[in-house]
Write a structure and sequence with these properties.
single chain; alpha+beta; OB fold (Dihydrolipoamide Acetyltransferase, E2P); five-stranded mixed barrel
């Protein structure tokens, strides 16, 4: 086994046997990894709160062969615990959603410095008291784009008509339909009705796609457009997940997103 040191966000931890922890990390250099930290529950004074979800740490671990179940983590040093986020329940709930989404949608050991930077920027957004809901929409769009999952929003996915107006978002087809194709699809082949998507929502999605995170810190969106985006992006995320995320259930329970 070879030793490696990297920055890592904690995605999730599990108790293991009497004294150890299993942890999922998203690392700067190795992507998502699974690790075992032996004896940590007998040495909480060494680790404190560094292993809480969405904390950013520097970890030292011994790498097993690629694809092995667990790497041995021997050192965890906190870089940023994002205390400002933890003191705001809504921000904390959305931060938990970010790491939950990454943990379930990203493949293991596929490095992406861009995705690591996205998660870091999203946490910093929340720490500055930016709107958690708006931060979530930006995070979702950027994440889908990086993973090659971004839905088609520039042209009808059936007839390729550019900039259709009105436009209808069809989750199963991965993009928007023009009015004619929407009508034929709903009537002819049993597809569910698409969700109306306003020009303002499409413009916001395009703006997020082409802008840097720094440029998006103060971006504004109306309540109506925000609700549209929440509906389509949440349904699109659910479509690509094996099950409903616990963090989403909590967000719904607290009234932070619509059921």
């Amino acid at each position: 086994m070879s030793a490696a040191k990297t920055e890592a966000f904690v995605l999730k931890t599990y108790d293991y046997r009497d004294t150890s922890l299993l942890a999922h990390f998203y690392t700067k250099d190795f992507g998502k990894i699974h690790g075992i930290i032996k004896g940590v529950r007998d040495a909480r004074y060494r680790y404190g709160s560094t292993l809480e979800p969405f904390s950013l740490n520097e970890i030292l671990f011994y790498r097993r062969r690629r694809g092995a179940d667990l790497h041995q983590v021997t050192q965890v040093e906190v870089i940023n615990n994002f205390q400002e986020v933890r003191e705001d329940l809504e921000a904390l709930a959305y931060a938990s959603y970010f790491v939950d989404l990454i943990n379930h949608i990203v493949e293991i050991e596929e490095p992406s410095t861009g995705l690591f930077g996205l998660l870091k920027d999203a946490m910093q957004f929340l720490a500055t008291k930016a709107s958690p809901r708006r931060s979530a929409r930006i995070f979702e769009v950027k994440l889908f784009e990086m993973l090659g999952l971004m839905p088609e929003i520039r042209a009808c996915v059936i007839c390729q008509d550019l900039g259709p107006s009105p436009a209808y978002f069809q989750v199963g087809m991965g993009g928007i339909l023009c009015q004619n194709c929407q009508g034929r699809s709903a009537a002819g082949d049993g597809q569910t009705t698409g969700i109306f998507l306003s020009r303002g929502a499409i413009q916001f999605l395009e703006h997020v796609r082409r802008s840097s995170m720094k440029e998006l810190l103060n971006v504004k969106v109306s309540q109506e457009v925000g609700e549209e985006l929440e509906k389509i992006l949440r349904r699109f995320a659910d479509f690509h997940l094996p099950r409903k995320l616990h963090s989403v259930t909590f967000l719904e329970k607290m009234g932070y997103i619509a059921r």
